[in-house]
Amino acid sequence: MKLKLKLIVTLLIAVGAIFLTGCFRITADDLYSLPEVSEEYLRLQAHITMILSQGAEFAAPTRGPNRQAVQLRDLNGTGANEVIAFFSVPGESTLKIYIFELVGDDYTVADVIEGVGTEIESVRYVDMNGNGTMEIVVGWQMGATLKYMSIYSIGGFHNQLLVSGEEYAEITTFDTTGDGTEDVIIFRLPTQETSAISTVFSLMQDGEIVSEDARLSNGVESISRIMTGRLSDDVPAIFIDSEGRFEDGSLVTDILSRQEGVFSNITLQPTSSVSDLTVRHRMNSSELNTDGIIKIPELRLLIAQSETEYFAIDWYAFMSNGRRTLAMTTYHNNFDEWFLILPFDWREKVSVRREDLTPGERTIIFSYFESEQSTHEDFLAITKLSGDNAVVRATRGNRTLLIVEHTAVYAYELLASPNSFGITFDDNMVRENFRLIHSEWIID
Protein backbone atom coordinates (compact mmCIF):
# COMPACT_ATOMS: atom_id res chain seq x y z
CA MET A 1 0.00 0.00 0.00
CA LYS A 2 2.82 2.40 0.90
CA LEU A 3 4.60 1.60 -2.36
CA LYS A 4 1.42 2.24 -4.35
CA LEU A 5 0.86 5.57 -2.59
CA LYS A 6 4.46 6.58 -3.23
CA LEU A 7 4.10 5.82 -6.94
CA ILE A 8 0.89 7.87 -7.14
CA VAL A 9 2.50 10.85 -5.40
CA THR A 10 5.53 10.62 -7.68
CA LEU A 11 3.27 10.50 -10.72
CA LEU A 12 1.28 13.56 -9.62
CA ILE A 13 4.41 15.58 -8.93
CA ALA A 14 5.92 14.68 -12.29
CA VAL A 15 2.74 15.40 -14.25
CA GLY A 16 2.38 18.74 -12.40
CA ALA A 17 5.96 19.64 -13.19
CA ILE A 18 5.48 18.82 -16.86
CA PHE A 19 2.40 21.04 -17.15
CA LEU A 20 4.03 23.91 -15.27
CA THR A 21 7.20 23.83 -17.30
CA GLY A 22 5.62 23.77 -20.72
CA CYS A 23 5.14 20.19 -21.97
CA PHE A 24 1.50 19.49 -22.64
CA ARG A 25 1.33 16.36 -24.81
CA ILE A 26 0.00 14.06 -22.07
CA THR A 27 -2.16 11.11 -23.13
CA ALA A 28 -4.37 8.80 -21.08
CA ASP A 29 -1.81 6.00 -21.52
CA ASP A 30 0.85 8.18 -19.91
CA LEU A 31 -1.14 8.25 -16.69
CA TYR A 32 -0.75 4.45 -16.29
CA SER A 33 3.03 4.44 -16.65
CA LEU A 34 5.87 5.94 -14.69
CA PRO A 35 6.47 9.53 -15.85
CA GLU A 36 9.26 10.28 -18.26
CA VAL A 37 10.51 13.72 -19.20
CA SER A 38 9.71 14.29 -22.89
CA GLU A 39 12.24 15.23 -25.53
CA GLU A 40 10.25 18.41 -26.19
CA TYR A 41 10.59 19.45 -22.57
CA LEU A 42 14.31 18.75 -22.53
CA ARG A 43 14.84 20.86 -25.64
CA LEU A 44 12.79 23.72 -24.21
CA GLN A 45 14.76 23.46 -20.98
CA ALA A 46 17.98 23.67 -22.96
CA HIS A 47 16.86 26.91 -24.65
CA ILE A 48 15.94 28.47 -21.30
CA THR A 49 19.17 27.26 -19.68
CA MET A 50 21.12 28.91 -22.48
CA ILE A 51 19.41 32.25 -21.82
CA LEU A 52 20.08 31.96 -18.10
CA SER A 53 23.71 31.02 -18.68
CA GLN A 54 24.20 34.30 -20.52
CA GLY A 55 23.45 36.24 -17.32
CA ALA A 56 19.68 36.59 -17.47
CA GLU A 57 17.35 35.83 -14.58
CA PHE A 58 13.70 34.88 -14.48
CA ALA A 59 11.47 37.97 -14.06
CA ALA A 60 7.88 36.83 -13.47
CA PRO A 61 5.20 39.54 -13.66
CA THR A 62 4.50 40.87 -10.19
CA ARG A 63 0.79 41.67 -10.57
CA GLY A 64 -2.16 40.85 -12.77
CA PRO A 65 -3.75 37.53 -13.74
CA ASN A 66 -0.60 35.89 -15.18
CA ARG A 67 2.31 35.76 -12.73
CA GLN A 68 4.37 32.72 -13.72
CA ALA A 69 7.91 33.10 -15.05
CA VAL A 70 7.06 30.59 -17.80
CA GLN A 71 3.53 30.62 -19.24
CA LEU A 72 1.55 28.66 -21.83
CA ARG A 73 -0.81 30.38 -24.25
CA ASP A 74 -2.17 29.76 -27.74
CA LEU A 75 -1.18 33.10 -29.24
CA ASN A 76 -2.02 32.53 -32.90
CA GLY A 77 -5.20 30.46 -32.71
CA THR A 78 -3.70 27.21 -34.00
CA GLY A 79 -4.81 25.16 -31.01
CA ALA A 80 -1.22 24.59 -29.86
CA ASN A 81 0.25 26.50 -26.94
CA GLU A 82 3.30 28.69 -27.28
CA VAL A 83 5.66 29.10 -24.32
CA ILE A 84 6.22 32.63 -23.02
CA ALA A 85 9.17 33.18 -20.66
CA PHE A 86 10.14 36.38 -18.82
CA PHE A 87 13.70 37.48 -18.08
CA SER A 88 15.69 40.41 -16.75
CA VAL A 89 19.39 41.24 -16.98
CA PRO A 90 20.87 42.03 -13.52
CA GLY A 91 22.54 45.40 -13.30
CA GLU A 92 20.71 46.64 -16.38
CA SER A 93 17.23 47.98 -17.09
CA THR A 94 16.68 45.42 -19.82
CA LEU A 95 13.61 43.16 -19.66
CA LYS A 96 12.88 40.48 -22.25
CA ILE A 97 9.88 38.34 -23.07
CA TYR A 98 10.76 35.25 -25.13
CA ILE A 99 8.09 33.47 -27.17
CA PHE A 100 8.93 29.84 -27.99
CA GLU A 101 7.05 28.02 -30.75
CA LEU A 102 6.95 24.24 -31.08
CA VAL A 103 8.13 23.32 -34.58
CA GLY A 104 8.17 19.57 -35.08
CA ASP A 105 9.73 18.13 -31.95
CA ASP A 106 11.73 21.18 -30.98
CA TYR A 107 11.05 24.63 -29.63
CA THR A 108 12.42 27.65 -31.47
CA VAL A 109 12.56 31.29 -30.44
CA ALA A 110 9.67 32.74 -32.46
CA ASP A 111 9.85 36.30 -31.12
CA VAL A 112 11.43 38.46 -28.43
CA ILE A 113 9.80 41.53 -26.89
CA GLU A 114 12.22 43.90 -25.20
CA GLY A 115 11.44 46.63 -22.69
CA VAL A 116 13.10 48.91 -20.20
CA GLY A 117 12.30 48.97 -16.49
CA THR A 118 12.98 47.52 -13.08
CA GLU A 119 10.49 44.66 -13.49
CA ILE A 120 7.53 43.43 -15.51
CA GLU A 121 4.46 44.59 -13.62
CA SER A 122 1.84 42.60 -15.55
CA VAL A 123 1.07 40.79 -18.80
CA ARG A 124 -2.27 40.08 -20.47
CA TYR A 125 -3.18 38.24 -23.65
CA VAL A 126 -6.10 39.80 -25.50
CA ASP A 127 -7.66 39.29 -28.94
CA MET A 128 -8.52 42.93 -29.55
CA ASN A 129 -10.00 42.67 -33.06
CA GLY A 130 -11.36 39.14 -33.22
CA ASN A 131 -8.87 37.80 -35.78
CA GLY A 132 -7.85 34.85 -33.60
CA THR A 133 -4.40 36.23 -32.79
CA MET A 134 -3.61 37.52 -29.32
CA GLU A 135 -2.22 40.96 -28.64
CA ILE A 136 0.17 41.09 -25.68
CA VAL A 137 -0.41 43.88 -23.17
CA VAL A 138 2.64 44.52 -20.98
CA GLY A 139 3.01 46.76 -17.95
CA TRP A 140 6.62 47.87 -17.48
CA GLN A 141 7.54 48.95 -13.93
CA MET A 142 9.87 51.94 -13.69
CA GLY A 143 11.00 52.40 -10.09
CA ALA A 144 8.70 52.26 -7.10
CA THR A 145 5.52 53.79 -8.53
CA LEU A 146 5.91 54.65 -12.21
CA LYS A 147 4.37 52.20 -14.69
CA TYR A 148 4.03 52.28 -18.47
CA MET A 149 1.77 50.17 -20.67
CA SER A 150 2.63 48.83 -24.13
CA ILE A 151 0.50 46.77 -26.52
CA TYR A 152 2.16 44.44 -29.03
CA SER A 153 0.68 42.72 -32.06
CA ILE A 154 2.50 39.43 -32.62
CA GLY A 155 0.94 38.28 -35.91
CA GLY A 156 3.36 35.95 -37.69
CA PHE A 157 5.61 36.27 -34.59
CA HIS A 158 6.99 39.60 -35.70
CA ASN A 159 5.94 41.88 -32.88
CA GLN A 160 4.65 45.29 -33.81
CA LEU A 161 4.35 48.00 -31.18
CA LEU A 162 0.77 49.31 -31.28
CA VAL A 163 0.79 51.44 -28.11
CA SER A 164 3.83 52.62 -26.18
CA GLY A 165 4.67 54.67 -23.12
CA GLU A 166 1.18 55.07 -21.65
CA GLU A 167 1.57 55.83 -17.96
CA TYR A 168 -1.04 54.19 -15.73
CA ALA A 169 -1.98 53.35 -12.14
CA GLU A 170 -4.27 50.39 -12.90
CA ILE A 171 -5.11 48.39 -15.99
CA THR A 172 -7.80 45.94 -17.05
CA THR A 173 -9.30 44.41 -20.19
CA PHE A 174 -13.00 44.22 -21.05
CA ASP A 175 -15.43 43.98 -23.96
CA THR A 176 -16.82 47.51 -23.65
CA THR A 177 -19.16 47.26 -26.63
CA GLY A 178 -20.42 43.69 -26.35
CA ASP A 179 -19.12 42.81 -29.84
CA GLY A 180 -17.02 39.87 -28.65
CA THR A 181 -13.62 41.60 -28.77
CA GLU A 182 -11.78 42.93 -25.74
CA ASP A 183 -10.42 46.41 -25.20
CA VAL A 184 -7.60 47.58 -22.97
CA ILE A 185 -8.48 50.14 -20.30
CA ILE A 186 -5.98 52.05 -18.18
CA PHE A 187 -6.59 54.40 -15.25
CA ARG A 188 -4.45 57.38 -14.29
CA LEU A 189 -4.48 59.13 -10.94
CA PRO A 190 -4.71 62.93 -10.81
CA THR A 191 -1.71 65.23 -11.05
CA GLN A 192 -1.37 68.96 -10.42
CA GLU A 193 -2.25 69.55 -14.06
CA THR A 194 -4.87 66.84 -14.77
CA SER A 195 -7.75 65.06 -13.07
CA ALA A 196 -8.05 61.28 -12.71
CA ILE A 197 -8.87 59.76 -16.06
CA SER A 198 -9.53 56.45 -17.79
CA THR A 199 -8.53 55.65 -21.37
CA VAL A 200 -9.89 52.78 -23.48
CA PHE A 201 -7.83 51.40 -26.38
CA SER A 202 -9.52 49.49 -29.22
CA LEU A 203 -7.96 47.76 -32.23
CA MET A 204 -9.77 48.21 -35.53
CA GLN A 205 -9.89 45.58 -38.27
CA ASP A 206 -7.40 47.56 -40.32
CA GLY A 207 -4.86 47.44 -37.47
CA GLU A 208 -5.41 51.02 -36.30
CA ILE A 209 -5.54 51.70 -32.55
CA VAL A 210 -8.17 54.22 -31.41
CA SER A 211 -8.49 55.58 -27.89
CA GLU A 212 -11.05 57.55 -25.88
CA ASP A 213 -10.89 59.22 -22.48
CA ALA A 214 -13.40 59.47 -19.65
CA ARG A 215 -12.92 61.52 -16.48
CA LEU A 216 -13.13 60.06 -13.01
CA SER A 217 -14.49 61.95 -10.00
CA ASN A 218 -12.64 64.96 -8.65
CA GLY A 219 -11.03 64.07 -5.34
CA VAL A 220 -9.87 60.57 -6.30
CA GLU A 221 -6.61 59.73 -4.57
CA SER A 222 -6.28 55.98 -5.06
CA ILE A 223 -8.16 53.20 -6.84
CA SER A 224 -9.20 50.37 -4.53
CA ARG A 225 -11.10 48.08 -6.88
CA ILE A 226 -12.12 47.66 -10.53
CA MET A 227 -15.06 45.48 -11.54
CA THR A 228 -16.52 44.76 -14.95
CA GLY A 229 -20.10 43.69 -15.52
CA ARG A 230 -23.44 44.99 -16.69
CA LEU A 231 -25.87 47.76 -15.96
CA SER A 232 -29.50 46.95 -15.18
CA ASP A 233 -30.47 47.48 -18.85
CA ASP A 234 -27.82 44.94 -19.90
CA VAL A 235 -25.20 47.43 -21.13
CA PRO A 236 -21.52 46.53 -20.43
CA ALA A 237 -19.86 48.82 -17.90
CA ILE A 238 -16.73 49.27 -15.78
CA PHE A 239 -17.09 50.08 -12.07
CA ILE A 240 -14.17 51.84 -10.36
CA ASP A 241 -14.17 52.10 -6.57
CA SER A 242 -11.81 54.90 -5.53
CA GLU A 243 -10.78 56.40 -2.23
CA GLY A 244 -10.31 60.10 -1.74
CA ARG A 245 -11.75 63.32 -0.37
CA PHE A 246 -15.49 63.37 -0.92
CA GLU A 247 -18.23 65.11 0.99
CA ASP A 248 -20.15 62.63 3.23
CA GLY A 249 -17.85 59.73 2.44
CA SER A 250 -14.43 58.35 1.63
CA LEU A 251 -15.31 56.08 -1.30
CA VAL A 252 -16.84 56.77 -4.71
CA THR A 253 -17.76 54.52 -7.65
CA ASP A 254 -17.39 55.87 -11.16
CA ILE A 255 -19.29 53.88 -13.79
CA LEU A 256 -17.83 53.98 -17.30
CA SER A 257 -19.85 52.88 -20.31
CA ARG A 258 -19.36 53.02 -24.07
CA GLN A 259 -22.56 53.84 -25.90
CA GLU A 260 -23.00 54.85 -29.54
CA GLY A 261 -19.24 55.07 -29.86
CA VAL A 262 -18.80 57.43 -26.89
CA PHE A 263 -16.85 56.38 -23.77
CA SER A 264 -18.15 58.30 -20.75
CA ASN A 265 -18.64 58.36 -17.01
CA ILE A 266 -22.42 57.96 -16.70
CA THR A 267 -22.52 58.81 -12.98
CA LEU A 268 -20.37 61.97 -13.06
CA GLN A 269 -22.43 65.03 -12.13
CA PRO A 270 -21.63 68.15 -14.19
CA THR A 271 -22.00 70.59 -11.28
CA SER A 272 -19.74 68.81 -8.78
CA SER A 273 -17.58 66.72 -11.17
CA VAL A 274 -18.15 63.84 -8.73
CA SER A 275 -20.32 60.72 -9.00
CA ASP A 276 -22.40 62.02 -6.09
CA LEU A 277 -24.96 59.19 -6.04
CA THR A 278 -22.24 56.64 -5.26
CA VAL A 279 -20.28 58.51 -2.56
CA ARG A 280 -20.36 56.58 0.73
CA HIS A 281 -18.34 55.30 3.65
CA ARG A 282 -16.08 52.42 2.75
CA MET A 283 -17.88 49.42 1.29
CA ASN A 284 -17.07 48.01 -2.12
CA SER A 285 -19.43 47.51 -5.02
CA SER A 286 -20.47 43.94 -5.67
CA GLU A 287 -22.36 41.70 -8.03
CA LEU A 288 -23.78 40.15 -4.81
CA ASN A 289 -26.32 37.73 -6.32
CA THR A 290 -24.37 36.48 -9.39
CA ASP A 291 -26.71 38.00 -11.98
CA GLY A 292 -23.87 39.92 -13.67
CA ILE A 293 -25.30 43.32 -12.64
CA ILE A 294 -22.89 45.25 -10.41
CA LYS A 295 -24.58 47.01 -7.50
CA ILE A 296 -23.53 50.00 -5.43
CA PRO A 297 -24.18 49.85 -1.65
CA GLU A 298 -25.60 52.60 0.53
CA LEU A 299 -25.89 52.30 4.31
CA ARG A 300 -29.24 53.04 5.94
CA LEU A 301 -29.57 53.41 9.71
CA LEU A 302 -32.25 51.17 11.19
CA ILE A 303 -34.62 52.20 13.95
CA ALA A 304 -32.81 51.23 17.14
CA GLN A 305 -33.97 49.27 20.17
CA SER A 306 -30.87 50.40 22.07
CA GLU A 307 -27.96 52.83 21.83
CA THR A 308 -26.16 50.44 19.49
CA GLU A 309 -26.51 51.41 15.83
CA TYR A 310 -27.55 48.83 13.26
CA PHE A 311 -27.60 49.35 9.52
CA ALA A 312 -29.31 47.88 6.49
CA ILE A 313 -27.54 48.07 3.16
CA ASP A 314 -29.51 49.23 0.14
CA TRP A 315 -27.95 47.98 -3.11
CA TYR A 316 -28.60 50.13 -6.18
CA ALA A 317 -28.33 49.08 -9.82
CA PHE A 318 -27.67 51.75 -12.42
CA MET A 319 -29.07 52.14 -15.91
CA SER A 320 -27.10 53.35 -18.92
CA ASN A 321 -28.61 56.85 -18.53
CA GLY A 322 -27.10 57.15 -15.03
CA ARG A 323 -30.34 56.65 -13.13
CA ARG A 324 -30.44 54.19 -10.27
CA THR A 325 -33.04 51.80 -8.90
CA LEU A 326 -33.09 49.86 -5.64
CA ALA A 327 -32.15 46.26 -6.50
CA MET A 328 -32.13 44.69 -3.03
CA THR A 329 -31.59 45.33 0.67
CA THR A 330 -29.43 43.26 3.00
CA TYR A 331 -28.52 43.09 6.65
CA HIS A 332 -24.84 42.23 7.11
CA ASN A 333 -23.56 40.69 10.35
CA ASN A 334 -19.85 41.11 9.69
CA PHE A 335 -18.81 39.83 13.12
CA ASP A 336 -20.52 36.47 12.57
CA GLU A 337 -19.85 36.41 8.80
CA TRP A 338 -23.37 36.13 7.41
CA PHE A 339 -25.94 38.32 5.73
CA LEU A 340 -29.64 38.16 4.97
CA ILE A 341 -31.44 39.53 1.90
CA LEU A 342 -34.37 41.48 3.33
CA PRO A 343 -37.80 41.42 1.65
CA PHE A 344 -38.85 44.84 0.39
CA ASP A 345 -41.90 44.86 2.68
CA TRP A 346 -39.57 44.93 5.73
CA ARG A 347 -38.51 48.47 4.83
CA GLU A 348 -39.14 50.95 7.66
CA LYS A 349 -40.90 48.17 9.62
CA VAL A 350 -38.05 46.09 11.07
CA SER A 351 -35.44 46.69 13.75
CA VAL A 352 -32.47 44.61 14.86
CA ARG A 353 -30.76 43.79 18.14
CA ARG A 354 -28.06 41.40 19.31
CA GLU A 355 -28.29 38.90 22.16
CA ASP A 356 -25.23 37.01 23.41
CA LEU A 357 -26.70 35.42 26.55
CA THR A 358 -25.40 31.87 26.08
CA PRO A 359 -21.68 31.02 25.75
CA GLY A 360 -20.87 29.79 22.25
CA GLU A 361 -23.99 31.38 20.76
CA ARG A 362 -24.43 34.80 19.17
CA THR A 363 -27.91 35.79 18.04
CA ILE A 364 -29.41 38.56 15.95
CA ILE A 365 -33.13 39.16 16.49
CA PHE A 366 -35.35 40.86 13.93
CA SER A 367 -38.41 42.68 15.29
CA TYR A 368 -41.48 44.28 13.72
CA PHE A 369 -42.75 47.73 14.69
CA GLU A 370 -45.67 49.76 13.41
CA SER A 371 -44.21 53.17 14.28
CA GLU A 372 -41.20 54.52 16.16
CA GLN A 373 -43.29 54.78 19.32
CA SER A 374 -44.86 51.29 19.08
CA THR A 375 -43.68 48.06 20.72
CA HIS A 376 -41.08 46.00 18.85
CA GLU A 377 -42.33 42.43 18.35
CA ASP A 378 -39.71 39.73 17.74
CA PHE A 379 -40.31 37.43 14.76
CA LEU A 380 -36.95 35.96 13.66
CA ALA A 381 -33.70 34.94 15.36
CA ILE A 382 -30.53 33.90 13.52
CA THR A 383 -27.76 32.36 15.61
CA LYS A 384 -24.14 31.45 15.04
CA LEU A 385 -23.08 28.56 17.29
CA SER A 386 -19.59 27.28 18.06
CA GLY A 387 -17.96 24.92 20.52
CA ASP A 388 -19.09 21.51 21.75
CA ASN A 389 -22.29 20.01 20.37
CA ALA A 390 -22.94 23.05 18.16
CA VAL A 391 -24.92 21.02 15.61
CA VAL A 392 -27.03 19.42 18.34
CA ARG A 393 -27.73 22.80 19.95
CA ALA A 394 -28.66 24.23 16.53
CA THR A 395 -31.70 21.92 16.41
CA ARG A 396 -32.94 22.27 19.97
CA GLY A 397 -36.38 23.66 20.62
CA ASN A 398 -37.79 25.43 17.56
CA ARG A 399 -34.42 26.07 15.95
CA THR A 400 -33.73 24.93 12.38
CA LEU A 401 -30.23 24.18 11.12
CA LEU A 402 -29.11 26.43 8.25
CA ILE A 403 -25.44 25.79 7.43
CA VAL A 404 -22.46 23.97 8.94
CA GLU A 405 -19.30 25.83 7.95
CA HIS A 406 -16.01 24.50 9.36
CA THR A 407 -16.20 25.20 13.12
CA ALA A 408 -19.28 27.44 12.87
CA VAL A 409 -22.91 26.39 12.74
CA TYR A 410 -25.79 28.66 11.73
CA ALA A 411 -29.42 28.20 12.74
CA TYR A 412 -32.66 30.19 12.80
CA GLU A 413 -35.91 30.27 14.72
CA LEU A 414 -39.26 31.80 13.81
CA LEU A 415 -40.46 33.69 16.90
CA ALA A 416 -43.92 34.45 15.47
CA SER A 417 -46.32 32.77 13.08
CA PRO A 418 -45.06 32.90 9.46
CA ASN A 419 -45.91 36.11 7.60
CA SER A 420 -47.38 37.79 10.66
CA PHE A 421 -47.73 41.58 10.78
CA GLY A 422 -48.26 41.69 7.01
CA ILE A 423 -44.55 41.20 6.20
CA THR A 424 -42.84 38.30 4.45
CA PHE A 425 -41.04 35.76 6.59
CA ASP A 426 -41.23 31.98 6.68
CA ASP A 427 -38.89 28.99 6.49
CA ASN A 428 -38.40 29.23 2.72
CA MET A 429 -37.62 32.94 2.84
CA VAL A 430 -34.92 32.47 5.51
CA ARG A 431 -33.30 29.49 3.80
CA GLU A 432 -33.29 31.16 0.37
CA ASN A 433 -32.11 34.59 1.57
CA PHE A 434 -29.41 33.58 4.07
CA ARG A 435 -25.81 33.82 2.82
CA LEU A 436 -22.33 33.59 4.23
CA ILE A 437 -20.49 36.86 3.90
CA HIS A 438 -17.55 37.62 1.61
CA SER A 439 -14.65 39.67 2.95
CA GLU A 440 -14.82 42.31 0.20
CA TRP A 441 -18.30 43.37 1.39
CA ILE A 442 -17.24 44.07 4.97
CA ILE A 443 -17.70 47.62 6.22
CA ASP A 444 -14.72 49.10 8.03
Briefly summarize what is shown.
By secondary structure, this protein is mostly beta strands. It is built from 4 helices and 27 strands.
Name the descriptors.
mainly beta, 4 helices, 5-stranded antiparallel β-sheet, 444 residues
Q: What is the number of strand segments? A: 27
Helical residues, percent: 10-25%
Q: Could you report the average pLDDT, rounded to the nearest whole number?
A: 89
From the spread of the alpha carbons, the general shape counts as elongated
Q: Beta-sheet strand percentage? A: 35-45%
Structural class computed from helices and strand pairing: mainly beta
Helix tally equals 4
Main beta-sheet strand count, sense and barrel state: 5 strands, antiparallel
Taking all Cα atoms into account, the compactness measure Rg is 28 Å
Would you identify the regions where 5 or more consecutive residues have pLDDT less than 50? Answer: 1-28
Terminal Cα separation, in Å? Answer: 52 Å
Show the helix and strand layout.
Elements: H1 2-21, H2 39-53, E1 57-58, E2 70-73, E3 82-88, E4 94-103, E5 106-116, E6 119-126, E7 135-142, E8 146-153, E9 160-167, E10 170-174, E11 183-188, E12 197-203, E13 209-215, E14 220-230, E15 236-246, E16 249-259, E17 262-265, E18 296-301, E19 311-318, E20 324-333, E21 338-342, E22 350-355, E23 361-368, E24 377-385, H3 390-393, E25 400-405, E26 408-414, H4 427-433, E27 434-436
Antiparallel strand pairs: 1-3, 2-3, 3-4, 4-5, 6-7, 7-8, 8-9, 10-11, 11-12, 12-13, 14-15, 15-16, 16-17, 18-19, 19-20, 20-21, 21-27, 22-23, 23-24, 24-26, 25-26
